Amino acid sequence: MRILVLGGHGFIGRRLAAALAADGHEVQARSRRDGFDLADLELTRRLLTGLRPEAIFHCAAHVGSLHYVSTHAAAVFHDNTQMALNLYRAVAEVCPSARLINPLSNCSYPGEADVQREPEWLHGEVHESVLSSGNAKRMVYYLARCYAKQYHVRTLNFLVPNAFGPGDYTDPTRTHALNGMIIRMLQAQRQGRAEFEIWGTGRPLREWGYVDDLVAILRHSLTLETDLTYPVNIAQNRGYSIRESAELIAKALGYEGRLFFNASYQDGASRKVLDDHRFRQVFPDFRFIDHEEGIRRTVEYYRSVL
Ligand SMILES: NC(=O)c1ccc[n+]([C@@H]2O[C@H](COP(=O)([O-])OP(=O)(O)OC[C@H]3O[C@@H](n4cnc5c(N)ncnc54)[C@H](OP(=O)(O)O)[C@@H]3O)[C@@H](O)[C@H]2O)c1
After folding, report:
1. Could you tell me if 182 and 299 are in contact, meaning their C-beta atoms sit under 8 angstroms apart?
2. Is the per-residue pLDDT at 145 higher than 80?
3. Is 218 within a domain?
4. Which secondary-structure segment (H or E) carries 101?
5. Which residue has its alpha carbon closest to ligand 1 atom 9?
6. How much of the chain exceeds pLDDT 70, in percent?
7. Is residue 13 within 6 Å of ligand 1 at its C-beta?
8. Which of 21, 43, 172, 197 has its CA 20 to 30 A from that of 5?
9. What is the structure's pLDDT at 155?
10. Ligand 1: distance of its center to the CA of 113 in Å?
11. 5 has pLDDT over 90
12. What atom of ligand 1 comes closest to residue 33's alpha carbon?
């Protein structure tokens, strides 16, 4: 199959493009580093006209930490919306039969939801801290529906939890949360520090997605016939406390310092997990990698590149 991975040099896009190529697909990865800007409609039309993709994974995004998406709220909302608008318009004009696959984020759930269930996805405002990124993802869903109605463009939407795993940035201020903790604890170990500080009590439960699991599910979507315009969670319905994850990282590293949970920092929501009922209907046989093994592989990766 001819496949285009937009944002194909990012954390998820790069591993996805490599996996698809290994499956024997004809894969093209594009981002601004290739001179392609999805914010430019004419460039987008030209790219699709040249490649005529049969499937497009939209992994291009303007994202960052919670602090970043708040302080750059207008730019984050504008850029992600602009990219999606251009993509749908160009697909409708050039290759309307292409299958579009969007990794949406579970930050687009209502801020209050501690168990994130698809039927309640749009039943409430996103948390103020993700006003820009969460609502831009919701907008992609409405765009998908409108383009399905008028142009019969087919979209599969996935609600993806926070990812971790090999291949993310090596700067702890740019990586995703769990990878950032791995990098910082590795640095603490190398500097011989006797204590590693973690903000908050360590009690909040969070669900994580190992990058190769996410990639495997996105790959599988190429052959799915289920209608996933309305998104499905990529879900295990299993949270790990920050403390559990920190202890697994320390174990994988062999870090012997004390883990100090600084409770003077706020915890945030006590629990954020994704309900997996619908996921299990769509992917009944999928087996997620064990969390400890995912952390072990990620630790090995950062040891090898830092
Ligand atoms: N990672 C997670 O924890 C997570 C969780 C839930 C959902 N998601 C979603 O999954 C997708 C991929 O995430 P990720 O973590 O792989 O992000 P990432 O590492 O930041 O990668 C984003 C990619 O988008 C490209 N890009 C940005 N602006 C562009 C533009 N104007 N034109 C073309 N390409 C552009 C970037 O490359 P250049 O700078 O070279 O353009 C980069 O390759 C995003 O939609 C994200 O919201 C991710």
Report:
1. yes
2. yes
3. yes
4. strand 99-105
5. 103
6. 100
7. yes
8. 172
9. 98
10. 25
11. yes
12. 40
Pocket probe mutation, ligand 1, options 59, 81, 108, max atoms within 8 Å of Cβ: 59
Euclidean distance between CA atoms 37 and 202, whole angstroms? 40
Averaged pLDDT for residues 290-301? 98
Ligand 1 centre to CA of 37 (Å) is 12
Is any ligand 1 atom within 6 A of the Cβ of residue 218?
no
* 224 in a structural domain: yes
State the closest ligand 1 atom to the C-alpha of 32, by its place in the atom list counted from 1. 41
Question: Are 55 and 155 in the same domain?
Answer: yes
Return the CATH number at 300. 3.90.25.10
Does 163 sit in the ligand 1 pocket, CB within 6 Å?
yes
Domain that holds residue 298: 168-206+239-272+285-305
Same domain, 151 and 185: no
Q: Half-sphere exposure of 281 toward its Cβ, with a 13 Å CA cutoff?
A: 11
- Nearest residue CA, atom 7 of ligand 1? 105
257 in the same domain as 124: no
Kindly tell me if the per-residue pLDDT of 209 is higher than 80: yes
Q: What is the pLDDT of residue 41?
A: 98
Q: Is the CB of 10 under 6 A from ligand 1?
A: yes
Could you report the per-residue pLDDT of 237-293, keeping only the tens digit for each?
999 999 999 999 999 999 999 999 999 988 877 888 999 999 999 999 999 999 999
Atom of ligand 1 lying closest to residue 164 CA: 3
* Residue 1, number of CB atoms within 10 A of its CB: 14
- Asked if residue 85 and residue 19 are part of one domain, the reply reads yes
Nearest to 242 by CA among 291, 173, 297, 298: 291
> Could you tell me the end-to-end alpha-carbon distance of the chain, in angstroms, rounded to an integer?
36
**78 and 18 in one domain?**
yes
Q: Is 280 part of a structural domain of the chain?
A: no
Report pLDDT digits (tens) over 15-70.
999 999 999 999 999 999 999 999 999 999 999 999 999 999 999 999 988 889 99
27, part of any domain: yes
Phi-psi region for residue 7, left (φ > 0), alpha (ψ -120 to 50) or beta? left
For β-strands 205-206 and 240-241, DSSP reports them as antiparallel
Number of domains into which the chain is organized: 2
Atom of ligand 1 nearest to the CA of 137: 47
- Judge if 145 and 266 occupy the same domain: no
